[in-house]
Design goal:
Layout lengths: L1 H68 L1 H8 L6 H18 L9 H24 L6 H13 L5 H14 L3
Helix pairs in contact: 1-4, 1-6, 3-4, 3-5, 4-5, 4-6
Length: 176
């Protein structure tokens, strides 16, 4: 009987202790959760303050890329008198690829939507230039290639480069 009373007393004290710890935990838990969420907010704020300038710079570089591969700007920059269509095509294709490679790391800092626009602009521009050079005779000049590319773009209802810039700006504005 003494042993039974002893075991019963141990059981009572154990249950009382467990109940006390349980009540204390649920009384303190909201404060712990609030403290944790405040620390998480501070961490996100610190990270945001450090990465925001890098993200803005990445969007600037993407805008510059879109402007540089826009045939209206690129052909003026790269055309030289006396180039054949094949030579100009080679220069333009190389320039587009090198511009893209130069900016490839920007995908880390921009949204996947913005990066998809960049890759689409690159691919579509290369496609337009390739199709234009294939449509011309071998004796065509660089000026003929430029005219063909610009004529193709002028027949489009919406300028794809303006649309790309609009999408990139919308994504950039979402940062704020």
């Amino acid at each position: 009987m003494v042993l039974t009373n002893y075991l019963f007393d141990i059981l009572k004290f154990t249950m009382a202790g467990i109940a006390t710890v349980y009540v204390a935990f649920y009384l303190i838990k909201p404060y712990l959760d609030k403290s944790e969420s405040m620390q998480l907010i501070e961490l996100k704020k610190t990270i945001s303050n450090q990465t925001l300038p890098l993200r803005l710079q990445a969007y600037e570089r993407i805008v510059l890329f879109v402007e540089r591969v826009n045939p209206a700007n690129m052909l003026v920059r790269l055309s030289e008198p006396g180039l054949s269509a094949a030579e100009l095509y080679s220069i333009v294709a190389t320039d587009i690829r090198s511009e893209f490679q130069h900016n490839i790391t920007q995908q880390v800092y921009v949204s996947s939507r913005a990066w998809a626009v960049v890759t689409r602009v690159k691919d579509d521009t290369l496609s337009v230039v390739t199709n234009a050079v294939k449509a011309l005779p071998e004796t065509a000049t660089g000026l003929d290639l430029s005219k063909t590319i610009l004529a193709h773009l002028s027949h489009l209802q919406d300028n794809p480069y303006d649309i790309a810039l609009k999408i990139v700006r919308e994504d950039m504005e979402a940062l704020f």
